[in-house]
Amino acid sequence: NVQTDNNREKNHIITLDNPPPVFTDIGIIGKDGKIINSKYDKYKQICRFCEFIDDVVKNDPRDEYFIVDFGCGKSYLTFVCYHYMTKIAGKKVKITGLDLKEKVIADCNELAKKYGYDSLNFLCMDIKDYRPERRPDMVIALHACDIATDYALYNAYLWQTDYIFSVPCCQHEMNAKVK
Q: I want to staple 97 with a disulfide (CB 3.0 to 4.6 A). Which of 72, 79, 128, 160 is the partner?
């Protein structure tokens, strides 16, 4: 019985049946429990990124991961990754998010504290200066601005990180200067 159309039901890992509780606070889900229209693309993007991570985690025997998120910004992906690893994959995880924006990092640390995500922390620093306490198992970078993605890839290589998941920056700063 071969399915010939493209309208098959997709098997998503993160759904509205099991959303990370932080989704309301970070503005993905409204008080009505539905995805906010202006955040639908972001929701799809981070959920799809999580599916890539699932592809390797479900076949990896380790029970614990150390993950670094370079240029985490408001940490949509970081929070989803933490939720996936701890609640869905059943893994122990320590995640460190790095970004330059002091207010954003303070807000992310507050949300991590609010939800009891004690193995999730955020540091306000230039990512080129970050030195992990041990070799990360995974480095993630989703649209880290300017050269942050380059630093993510470079450091992941130097650290011999097992998994690197990265979507490069759209270079909107550079595109604004191109005629």
A: 72
The CA–CA distances, whole Å, from 146 to 45, 96, 99, 171, 179 equal 19, 20, 12, 6, 19
Task: Sort strands 92-99 and 64-70 into parallel, antiparallel or unpaired.
Answer: parallel
Cα distance between residue 77 and residue 119, in whole Å: 15
**Three-state SS at 100:** coil
Cα–Cα distance, 128 to 147 (Å, whole number): 10
CA angle 80, 26, 106 (to 5 degrees): 95
**Closest residue by Cα to residue 166 from 44, 35, 151:** 151
Q: Output the pTM of the full model.
A: 0.84
Give the single-character DSSP code of 65. Answer: E
Q: Which two tokens stand for residue 22?
A: 């932080």
- 54-113: pLDDT as tens digits: 999 999 999 999 999 988 888 888 999 999 999 999 999 999 999 989 999 999 999 999
Structure tokens given for 74:
């408001």
The 8 Å CB, 24+ separation contacts for 125-130 are: 125/98, 125/100, 126/100, 127/70, 127/71, 127/98, 127/99, 127/151, 127/152, 127/155, 130/68, 130/98, 130/155
